[in-house]
Design brief:
The chain is of the alpha/beta class. It has a single domain, classed as Rossmann fold. The strands form 3 sheets. Strands 1, 4, 5, 6, 7, 8, 9, 10 and 11 form a 9-stranded mixed beta sheet that branches. It binds uracil (URA). The site of uracil (URA) has 10 residues, from helix 6. Keywords: Allosteric enzyme, Glycosyltransferase, GTP-binding, Nucleotide-binding, Transferase. Pfam families: UPRTase. It comes from Crocosphaera chwakensis CCY0110.
Length: 216
């Protein structure tokens, strides 16, 4: 059977709560930022829950030597926030993965053509083998920005099966494109919404995540 994109929607009361807060048009900017940060935290937690590079070792407790499972320091962890909106998930993700390297990728969408262009690219020339990659992109809408980001990441020798996308709201057009081009990817999202409108916004969605997070 051909590989198929895996999309996880964790059934977690905190994720549902903060999604509800983020969706509410009456939520003030400061609380919206908190909601996105919390979603970044809990979705990253869920994304690392079942598979992550650990090693078995021993440590000395104050009383005795005992077995310990630790994050393997030899395996690089890369977190890639897609600017602007992806920044709103970053501090939450970093509370879960403080040792990760952060590679900023700045993409901007032309509101008329809906085409994306890259204005900042801090990705490495190539990713070391086995690098665990976590992309922060809260809104998977038309798929334009995530497909552009995936192009940049794939051409740097990333193992796509080790790439996890953290999103808050995902819509079918983006998920379909990812499934067609990168079926071994893993997506973690708080919800899958019905679709997008003519302006490329997810409905019901939560509006413009970047504008709401940064108040601009
Ligand atoms: N980007 C956003 O911020 N919101 C959407 O609904 C779609 C893309």
């Amino acid at each position: 059977m051909p590989p198929q994109l895996r999309v996880y929607v964790p059934d977690h009361p905190l994720i549902k709560h903060w999604l509800g807060v983020a969706r509410d048009v009456n939520t003030p900017g400061v609380l919206f930022k908190t909601a996105m940060s919390e979603l970044g935290r809990w979705l990253t937690y869920e994304a690392t829950r079942y598979w992550f590079p650990t090693l078995e070792t021993t440590v000395n407790s104050p009383l005795a030597v005992c077995n310990a499972t630790l994050i393997n320091p030899q395996v690089p962890i890369a977190v890639i926030p897609i600017l602007r909106a992806g920044l709103s998930l970053l501090d939450g993700a970093q509370t879960v993965l403080p040792v990760a390297s952060i590679y900023h990728l700045g993409l901007v969408r032309d509101e008329e053509t809906l085409e994306n262009s890259c204005y900042l690219n801090k990705l490495p020339e190539k990713f070391a083998p086995n690098t665990q990659i976590i992309i922060l992109e809260p809104m998977l809408a038309t798929g334009g920005s995530i497909m552009r980001a995936m192009e940049e990441i794939a051409q740097r020798e990333a193992d796509i099966s080790l790439v996890r996308i953290i999103s808050v709201v995902a819509a079918p057009p983006a998920l379909q494109q990812l499934n067609t081009h990168y079926p071994s990817l893993n997506v973690y999202t708080a919800i899958i919404d019905e679709g997008i409108n003519e302006q490329g916004y997810i409905v019901p969605g939560l509006g413009d995540a970047g504008d709401r997070a940064f108040g601009t």
